[in-house]
Each structure stands twice: as C-alpha cells, then as structure tokens.
Amino acid sequence: MDSAQRVLIVEDEDKLRRVLHLQLAGAGYVALEAAHAEAARELAARADVVLTDLRLPGVDGMALLETLSREHPNLPVIVMTAYGTIESAVAAMKAGAVDFLLKPFSGDHLLTVVEKALSLRSLRDENRRLRAELGRESDFEGLIGKSVAMREVFSTVIRVAPTRATVLLAGESGVGKDRIARAIHHQSPRRDRPFVKINCTALPENLMESELFGYEKGAFTGAITAKPGKFEQADTGTVFLDEIGDVPPAVQVKLLRILQDRELERLGSNRTRAVDVRVIAATNVDLRVALENGNFREDLYYRLNVVPIDIPPLRARRADIPALVEKFAGGVPVTAAAMEKLIAHHWPGNVRELENAIERSLILRAGGELDAADVRLESRSRPASDAFLPEGVTLEEHERALIREALRRAGGNKSQAARLLGLTRNALRYRLTQMGVADANGDDDHSGK
C-alpha cells in the first residue's frame, strides 16, 4: 500500500473521528479530518477516498455525497450509518457511494472496505486514462491508427502493459510489431529499465544460444572471457523476441525454462541464474502451422500466447493511410489525387513500404506539393481499383474458386490455405461452411476439399 494515500474522515463526533484517524494512520494511511460537509468539500481535492457519516450538522451526508459525486466523479465515497435499517445505506449506494459501514464496526473491517475503495479508485483512474488515450484522433505512442482495428490494438496494449504477462504479436512484416512492443514496454512499470530487442532471424543458429543466454570463459574456442547474454542484459526490463518462429528446437527448450521458472544457465556453466524479464514475442508466420509441422513446441507456444495481439495489415485498415501519409510527408502538401492513389495501393510491405514510398516520392517530386504523378509505387502490387473479376464470373463464384485453389495448393491444410488467402483460420472455416464443405469446423485434414 502507498503511504501517501489519503483518507478524508467526515464525522462530527470528535471522539469517533479521532479513533478512526488512529486506526487509519496505524495502517499507513494519511488521515484528513472534517467535522462538517463544508470543510469536507475544501479537503476533497486532496483525498483518495472519503469516509463520511450520513448524519452531519447542517448539510447531511447524503447531500455531501451528491456534491462529491458531481465535483469529484472519480473519488470513491464510503458512508457510515447507525440509524434505522440498512435502507439509508442502500439509498447512499444508489446515490453513488461505493460501500457502507454499519456502526459499530471493527478496525479490520474498516481497513478492508477502505482498501477495496482505493482499488476501485485505481481502476477508475486507469479507465479514465484509457479513454483519454483512445480519445486521441489517431496518435498513440508514435503509432498512427484511427481505424477500429488499430484502436482495439491500442486498447489491448494499454490493458496489458501494466502487467508482466507475456505478449505474442502477430502480423505481416512491416505492420509495426516493433513499435507495438516498445509501446507496451513504455506503458509498463519497467519503462525505465532495459528494452532488449533480439532478431531471431539475424542470429546464426550456432550462435543463438550463447547470444541469448551468455557463456563462461572457455565454453568454446574463442571464449576468452565470460559474457552475459541478452536475457541477463535485460534483467528487470523487457526482452523483445522478434521472429520467434525461427528459433531452433534446442533453444526453444531454454526459452521455455525462462518463461516458466525465470532462470537460465550460461553456456559452459552449471550455475543457475535468476532473471526478471518481461517477454514480448513477435511472428509474421502462423505458429499454429509450425506446431502442426512439428517445428515449434506446443508448450512454448502456449507460454508465449498468454495475451495475443494481431496487428492487421495496412490494406485491411485503409482509413489509417491519410494520417500515415501526413506524418511521413512531414508537412509537404499532398493532393487529393495522390492520396487516392496511395489509398488504392495494396501495400504488401505495409506501413514500412508506405513510409519508403513517401520518402522516395518526396525526393523525386516535380513541384512543391506531392501529386499523383509524383507517387512512385512498386509494380509488383497493383492498386485494388485495377483488379477485375474474370468475365462472366460473379464475386461469389470467384471467391469459391480462390478458396478451392488455396486448399489444393495447401494439400487440404486449412491453416496454410488461410495464410495463402490472407484470412484467419476461423474466417476460412466460416466461408467453407457457407460453401457447404463437409467437416468445415473439424481439424485440418488433407482431403483437398
């Protein structure tokens, strides 16, 4: 409990007010005192929770409760009453009180109710911060996204960041997984501790173990001194494992130990070292397919996938493109025709490709503003407006043909077929159900249907 938390006691009986003060101070709280409602209003801004009698001289406790609910909506109020039945307490709860105490009550019960009210205050403050963050038009931690899909991502980031839960980021290359990982770290209590990024693809397999977990002197040829690994360097901070799907099986076992037991052993050592790290992992492939193929440990997958965050590709959130273009253009005017061209592009490289395209177009533009003729796009992806259905084929027929072809290429494996189509497995199964394909909700098979 934070010793700076302040409890405002509103009670006209001096003796009882003093007893409550001593009980709260003994538990580490700062007790503020008011003998009537007017004094309580003046002190309310300094309080974290209010404990008030319902029977007060002048303005009674009910009127004070209504005033505080209006002037300090996030300030929890606990009411005390010893009169009549419980109806007065129920009426106070309806008016906005968070809890009540029937006199006489024990000191332990008092502290329990106060602690519960302070927890509620913390939750209200967090929700208010969440609403403020999501209320921004498009910018969160340097990330641009006003679309519903990205606002859901930001909401999850805000909720998971204060915890130590492991997070698995999924999405195509270039969608911003690195930025999301840094946002989680920056929003967490570990924000002032190390953030260590490990690109699993960039580490050769024979060096990965020593880089991640460190080694002792003489552990291998060339190990002339001991060296801590990335996890030790990130102790008390966050480790970001990018492209986790490329980790070899031998290293997966040691990663599992860190996630389960928070400990490791350096290469060439039998000494167990404790590490306090928060792990965020990222992948641009479907790890469930790797599970099915035997390339990824099932127990490690479930340890990583505590809080999954799927970051949608740019083509699935085209509403974000204008704000991204404005950011990357750095104040250079962009014509409506140029913006239309940028919005229509497929963007297989996602936000990273968009940023590069804007930088290239700005350098090569003819005039002061960025016009459609200045926008230089890679030819490997055609704008969506150039895609037409085959003559005489309906959209539904074309979709069914694409699904059948994807299943054929994937040998009937629905997860792989979904990846080929840019769908989730559940989305593909829904479409298969609509098509009347048998056993669409069953396990992946190799029927080729």
Structure description:
With 449 residues, this protein is α/β, with parallel strands linked by helices. It folds into 4 domains: 6-128, Response regulator (Rossmann fold); 144-310, P-loop containing nucleotide triphosphate hydrolases (Rossmann fold), CATH 3.40.50; 315-386, Orthogonal Bundle (Helicase, Ruva Protein, domain 3); 390-449, Homeodomain-like (Arc Repressor Mutant, subunit A, Orthogonal Bundle). It is 44% helix and 13% strand. The strands form 4 sheets. It has a 5-stranded parallel β-sheet with strand order 2-1-3-4-5, sandwiched between helices. Strands 9-10-13-8-14 form a 5-stranded parallel β-sheet. Strand 6 (139-140) and strand 7 (143-144) form a beta hairpin. 30% of the residues are buried. The model is unreliable at 134-139, 381-387 and 439-449 (pLDDT under 50).
Number of strands: 14
Instruction: Tell me the major beta sheet.
Output: 5 strands, parallel
Poorly predicted regions are 134-139, 381-387, 439-449
Strand order of the largest sheet: 2-1-3-4-5
Percentage beta strand: 5-15%
Features:
4 domains, disordered C terminus, Helicase, Ruva Protein, domain 3, alpha/beta, Rossmann fold, five-stranded parallel β-sheet
Write the layout of secondary structure elements.
Elements: E1 6-10, H1 14-26, E2 30-34, H2 37-43, E3 49-53, H3 61-71, E4 77-81, H4 87-94, E5 99-102, H5 107-135, E6 139-140, E7 143-144, H6 148-160, E8 167-170, H7 177-186, E9 195-199, H8 205-213, H9 230-233, E10 238-242, H10 249-261, E11 263-265, E12 272-274, E13 278-283, H11 287-292, H12 298-304, E14 307-310, H13 321-329, H14 336-344, H15 350-364, H16 395-409, H17 414-421, H18 425-435
Parallel strand pairs: 1-2, 1-3, 3-4, 4-5, 8-13, 8-14, 9-10, 10-13
Antiparallel strand pairs: 6-7, 11-12
